[in-house]
Automatic annotation (TrEMBL):
GO biological processes: L-leucine biosynthetic process
Gene source species: Circinella minor
UniProt-recorded name of the protein: 3-isopropylmalate dehydratase
Entry's Gene Ontology molecular function annotations: 3-isopropylmalate dehydratase activity; 4 iron, 4 sulfur cluster binding; metal ion binding
Family: Belongs to the aconitase/IPM isomerase family.
Entry GO terms, CC: 3-isopropylmalate dehydratase complex
Domain Aconitase/3-isopropylmalate dehydratase large subunit alpha/beta/alpha: 7-463
Keyword vocabulary terms for this entry: 4Fe-4S, Amino-acid biosynthesis, Branched-chain amino acid biosynthesis, Iron, Iron-sulfur, Leucine biosynthesis, Lyase, Metal-binding
Known catalytic reactions: (2R,3S)-3-isopropylmalate = (2S)-2-isopropylmalate
Biological or metabolic pathway of the protein: Amino-acid biosynthesis; L-leucine biosynthesis; L-leucine from 3-methyl-2-oxobutanoate: step 2/4
EC numbers for this chain: 4.2.1.33
Biased composition (Low complexity): 514-529
Length: 756
């Protein structure tokens, strides 16, 4: 039978297969950043382990760093004001030194968002496996790589063994055929797809994006699509490598050269899915149905064409969906049936690993050219890397954008998640090119609408969400008959561009949700975790009825700055649990009520629990609070994995079973989770549940799987020998193309000479 692209890449990376189907797969490329690595390095240190393949590891800082001018930059210690952010960056630099890793620090033009710099350097290659302690690792799938986010325990596993334990996912294909219209970008395409399949649509799957719409896309556009496959719940997204891919990679500093290049291209071409390959799930979408698209609510699936209106919950038949809609509309501060083009904005953010590449900046500049940011709007542009910033400046894009009143910043994650000073203030509404519109994502109380870079620029200059097709140059403008598949077009008066008065760069630099001292975990020294055993667990179960609980909700960004695994219990569900104005408990929240303050189990009736970010801080927070088992109808993959790595048991049951347990939980009845016999007991009955054999074994015995994998060293070594023979370009190269390790960039060095 024919194989898919995913099958082929998977097969070429299996080091070992256990009886229950769990595989040990080899990881070719490991990207590391400051947020999800401190505890992993500490684990290595405590166990006396080394990084197995420094040549296949690339490190940078991106989440915590300010994006203000670096003219006065000397080092992270003097440059970063906020103590926890500074500690995280300093810790990373110490680890880089200690483990002798390649590092692009803030003084290096190659520094940038981790998912931007990997492809930019040619570190990401077709057919390779890529990991990072970050959910948007899916971005690299645009090259036909198998790339997915992992938690911190898995980061430690990859650092120590260059392998990962995985079960194979299902194959899903999303085919978009036809031509997208002018003004419709790849961001619109992926938002539309998520609107169709939902944020859990890809759960348990690797999505292959196929069809002429993707074939016609540049690599930048493909990266935006694969980037957001995690927002569709998928383990990874992939696009078959083709000439566009090869042209992008050719001559990148770390790309194969000479005869090795030809051999690599030949291999890469063989990775395309076979014509008779089978997919478990197949979705087909017509490109002609896609209009410029944006989100109206607080989940990436809450999408609407720009010509549409906010939905009306009263028309929703499904009560759970109605509740979710009402909650989202209330948070986002919009009435039902509001035309999106009538919605006024306060801020614009053009950046993030979704849309901060050169093509994105070109699209924004095309719309901004000769216009001006609306009087009441603050708009910022944050290039994805120092090299992109330089390229944009060579092309004069910075000039166009600055003249139009945009703030031109330095590379980093910036306002995508506001772990750094770039944040929204409560109630502010932002047109954002990022990927998550979760509650509080860009700052507590902030309201995020996801858009393409062109739509963001259009919103900036009119001050309202605006159909970008009206602002395209005349020759590209089309008749705006495409209103998307579900909504009717409506007319709106555009505000004339007006003079820009208040554009202070520091408008972005207001930290609105630093953790109060009492809730902040003390970030003194890092520590390694021991793996607690799990056999049975009896106790109160806290009932919740929210769908799509994301990990930003479980543990907001300001608590990710710790370099410890402990002390996060008080931050669990922080924004739901505490009033941001007073830091007082909200009595209506379940964990603030008796007996649930002592809950050991959580029963949530909503699906897709733990979606979004890969932050292992989410299970750490549950563990620290005392909750060690979560029962829900379905889970997001990374969160599910992360639980097991911390001695916790997530249990997926049928909706009616969860509803039954929820009823007992509400009545303050205790439940018992019996892992040995695989049943959840409630007064008068029990419900059996599934768990993978290997995971059960590790949980019951409190086994650390790094130690187990290290016993397979011989297998890993022989895989590495085969890898060198078959795919020599996968061994790290230095910047002269020599098959050694990548040149380590000593911390604090003078600016490196750039290779391209
Ligand atoms: C910090 C990291 C764990 C997180 C992720 O995994 O996505 C972040 O990048 C995000 O976008 O929320
Ligand atoms: S999603 Fe945002 S915070 Fe996460 S890696 Fe991308 S830019 Fe950084």
């Amino acid at each position: 039978m024919g194989r898919t692209l995913y099958d082929k890449v998977w097969d070429d990376h299996v080091v070992d297969k256990q009886e229950d189907g769990t595989c040990l797969i080899y990881i070719d490329r490991h990207l590391v950043h400051e947020v999800t690595s401190p505890q992993a390095f500490e684990g290595l240190r405590n166990a006396g382990r080394k990084v197995r393949r420094p040549d296949c590891t690339l490190v940078t800082v991106d989440h915590n760093i300010p994006t203000t001018s670096r003219k006065t930059f000397k080092n992270v210690t003097t440059f970063i004001d906020e103590a926890d952010s500074r500690t995280q960056c300093e810790t990373l630099e110490q680890n880089v030194k200690e483990f002798n890793l390649t590092y692009f620090g803030m003084e290096d033009d190659r520094q940038g968002i981790v998912h931007v710099i990997g492809p930019e350097q040619g570190f990401t290659l077709p057919g390779c496996t890529v990991n990072c302690g970050d959910s948007h690792t899916s971005t690299h799938g645009a090259f036909g790589a198998l790339a997915f986010g992992i938690g911190t325990s898995e980061v430690e596993h990859v650092l120590a063994t260059q392998t990962l334990l995985q079960k194979k996912s299902k194959n899903m294909r999303v085919k978009v055929d036809g031509k997208v219209a002018p003004g419709v970008g790849s961001k619109d395409v992926v938002l539309h797809i998520i609107g169709v399949i939902g944020t859990a649509g890809g759960t348990g799957c690797v999505i292959e994006f196929a069809g002429s719409a993707f074939e016609d896309m540049s690599m930048e556009a493909r990266m935006s699509v694969c980037n957001m496959s995690i927002e569709a719940g998928a383990r990874a997204g992939m696009i078959a490598p083709d000439e566009v891919t090869f042209e992008y990679i050719r001559n990148r500093p770390l790309a194969p050269k000479g005869a090795e290049w030809d051999r690599a291209v030949e291999y890469w071409k063989s990775l395309r899915s076979d014509p008779d390959a089978k997919y478990d799930i197949d979705v087909t979408i017509d490109a002609a149905d896609i209009a410029p698209t944006l989100t109206w609510g607080t989940s990436p699936q809450d999408v609407v064409p720009i010509t549409g209106k906010t939905p009306d919950p009263s028309k929703q038949e499904d009560p759970a969906r109605r509740l979710a809609m009402e909650r989202a509309l209330e948070y986002i501060g919009l009435e039902p049936n509001t035309p999106m083009e009538k919605v006024k904005i306060d801020k614009v953010f053009i950046g993030s690993c979704t849309n901060s590449r050169i093509e994105d900046l070109r699209h924004a500049a095309q719309i901004a050219k000769g216009r001006h940011v609306a009087d009441w709007v603050y708009a910022m542009v944050v290039p994805g890397s120092g090299l992109i910033k330089k390229q944009a400046e060579r092309e004069g894009l910075d000039k166009i954008l600055k003249e139009a009143g945009f703030d031109w910043r330095e590379a980093g994650c910036s306002m995508c998640l506001g772990m750094n000073p770039d944040q929204l203030s409560p109630g502010e509404r932002c047109a954002s090119t990022s990927n998550r519109n979760f509650e509080g994502r860009q700052g507590a109380g902030g309201r995020t609408h996801l858009v393409s870079p062109a739509m963001a620029a259009a919103a900036a200059v009119t001050g309202y969400f605006t159909d970008v097709r009206k602002l395209l140059p005349a020759e590209e403008r089309t008749d705006i008959t495409n209103t998307g598949s579900s909504e009717k077009h409506h007319d709106v008066e555009l505000e004339p561009p007006v003079e820009n008065h208040a554009k202070a760069a520091d408008q972005a630099d207001v930290v609105t949700d630093a953790p109060p001292a009492s809730q902040s975990p003390a970030p003194s020294t890092a520590e390694a975790s021991g793996m607690p055993e799990f056999t049975t667990l009896e106790g109160y179960a806290a009932p919740m009825d929210i769908a799509n609980i994301d990990t930003d909700m479980i543990i907001p960004k300001q608590f990710l700055k710790t370099i410890k695994r402990t002390g996060l219990g008080s931050a669990l569900f922080y924004n739901l649990r505490f009033d941001p104005a007073t830091n007082k408990e909200k009595p209506e929240f379940v964990l603030n009520q008796e007996p649930y303050r002592e809950a050991k189990i959580l029963v949530c009736t909503g699906p897709n629990f733990g979606c979004g970010s890969s932050r292992e801080h989410a299970p750490w927070a549950f563990n620290d609070f005392g909750i060690r088992s979560i029962i829900a109808p379905s889970f997001a993959d990374i969160f599910f994995n992360n639980c097991f790595k911390n001695g916790m048991l997530p249990i997926a049951l049928k909706q009616e079973e969860v509803d039954l347990l929820y009823g007992y939980a509400k009545k303050n009845e205790k439940l018992e989770v019996d892992l040995v016999n695989q049943v959840v007991k409630y007064p008068g009955g029990e419900i059996p549940f599934e768990v993978e054999e290997f995971r059960k074994h590790c949980l019951i015995n409190g086994l650390d799987d790094i130690g187990l994998t290290m016993q397979k060293d011989k297998l890993i070594e022989s895989f590495e020998t085969k890898r060198t023979a078959n795919w020599p370009w996968l061994n790290g190269k230095d910047y002269n193309g020599k098959a050694t390790k990548i040149t380590a960039v000593p911390v604090g060095n003078k600016k490196q000479k750039l290779d391209w």
